[in-house]
Design goal:
single chain; 150 residues; alpha+beta; three-stranded antiparallel β-sheet; 49% helix; extended; COMM domain-containing protein 3; COMM; COMMD3
Length: 150
């Protein structure tokens, strides 16, 4: 962020504070499972312009991953014990327009060693997002394997 030429005129300390505030907002919204309308209202109360609110809400649509990350913040991260998935096929959207979009509903069974509880983390993703996630998990597994061989 500090190397971005569009932000070179902004004090680095202010920029870091803004980044931390935005990250905190996203994580808290994910923890609270806030919907777009609640977030939009909150950002309007903070006097953000409509264009920025729309951009933020568009990015927040990917909050399923934010929820996974927010659950892992604490003294000890969550451990995935199992995963289940099912294919969902959306035929119409909320405006009753035909969409015919397949997506995957993924549920991660997790446990937290601090509390001993087993909350499930669920999210929806497209085939491309799921393939990207699987690729990143394979990369992580290879990195871990190389690290243990040293």
């Amino acid at each position: 962020i500090l190397d971005d030429p569009d932000l070179k005129d902004i004090d680095p300390t202010v920029l870091k504070h803004c980044h931390a505030a935005a990250a905190t907002c996203i994580l808290e919204a994910g923890k609270q499972k806030a919907d777009i309308s609640a977030i939009s209202t909150c950002l309007e109360d903070c006097k953000l312009d409509k264009e920025r609110i729309e951009q933020f809400c568009t990015e927040y649509q990917h909050r399923e991953l934010v929820t996974v990350v927010s659950f892992s913040i604490g003294r000890s991260p969550l451990h995935i014990t199992d995963v289940s998935w099912r294919l969902e096929y959306q035929i119409k959207n909320s405006q009753l327009h035909k969409t015919y979009q397949p997506s995957y509903l993924v549920t991660l069974n997790v446990e937290n060693s601090d509390s001993g509880s087993h909350p499930d983390v669920s999210f929806s993703c497209t085939m491309e997002q799921l393939q990207d996630l699987v690729g990143k998990l394979k990369d992580a597994a290879k990195s871990l394997e190389r690290a243990t061989q040293m």
